[in-house]
Write a structure and sequence with these properties.
Layout: E1 6-11, H1 29-39, E2 44-50, E3 61-64, H2 72-81, E4 86-91, H3 99-106, E5 112-113, E6 126-127, H4 140-143, E7 149-150
Parallel strand pairs: 1-2, 1-4, 2-3, 5-7
Antiparallel strand pairs: 4-6
Helix pairs in contact: 1-3
C-alpha cells in the first residue's frame, strides 16, 4: 500500500517586472505560503527561486534553476523529473491563498483552478498524472490543456492572479 504524498512547488523566480517589486516578498511572501501549505498537511515544500543568487532569500528547501533551463516550462519539467509525489503548484503571487484553498485542490486529481474572472490558473495546478502534460507546448496554459478545470466557489478568489499594481485592487485577504 503506497501512501500518496503531495509536494508543493512554489514558483518564486520571476522578475516581477510588471508589478515593479518582488512578488515573492509581498503579503507575507513565500514564508506565508509555506506556513499555509504546512497547515494544509503538506510536509514537502520546495521553493523554486530562479537564479542561484536568490536562494538565500528563502528558507526551507530551495532549488535554483539549472543553467540549461531557459524558461518556466523547462524548469517545471526539470523539477517534476526530481519528484515522485503528486505535485501542487503555487505561484508566489498567490497572495490570498489559504490552507483551505490548498486543501481543496490538494484533494483533487489532475486539475487547473478557475479564478474569479473565469480564467484557468495553471500555476495553481494539481498534478497526479503526468502522462497528459504536453511538453511540446509553447505556453504554460498549453502544457495543462488536457487538465480539467477546478471550480470551487468557496475558494475561487484564492486562485486569482496578481501581475500588476492594478490587479491588487481586487485582492481579498481572509
Amino acid at each position: 500500500l503506497r501512501v500518496v504524498m503531495t509536494t508543493a512547488l512554489i514558483f518564486a523566480g520571476g522578475k516581477s517586472s510588471r508589478m515593479g517589486r518582488d512578488k515573492a516578498a509581498m503579503y507575507g511572501g513565500v514564508a506565508r505560503l509555506i506556513d499555509e501549505c504546512s497547515k494544509a498537511g503538506i510536509s514537502k515544500i520546495i521553493t523554486l527561486c530562479g537564479a542561484e543568487e536568490r536562494k538565500s532569500a528563502f528558507s526551507g528547501e530551495v532549488w535554483s534553476d539549472p543553467e540549461n533551463c531557459t524558461g518556466l516550462i523547462e524548469v517545471l519539467q526539470w523539477a517534476l523529473s526530481r519528484i515522485d509525489d503528486e505535485v501542487l503548484l503555487i505561484p508566489c503571487d498567490a497572495f490570498g491563498l489559504t490552507a483551505g484553498g490548498i486543501t481543496a485542490i490538494k484533494n483533487m486529481p489532475n486539475c487547473v483552478p478557475i479564478d474569479e474572472d473565469g480564467m484557468r490558473q495553471p500555476l495553481h495546478a494539481k498534478i497526479t498524472n503526468r502522462d497528459v502534460l504536453n511538453w511540446q507546448a509553447d505556453s504554460i496554459n498549453q502544457v495543462f490543456a488536457e487538465f480539467p478545470p477546478f471550480h470551487n466557489e468557496e475558494f475561487i478568489s484564492e486562485f486569482n492572479n496578481f501581475n500588476s499594481p492594478e490587479d491588487l485592487k481586487n485582492l481579498r485577504l481572509r
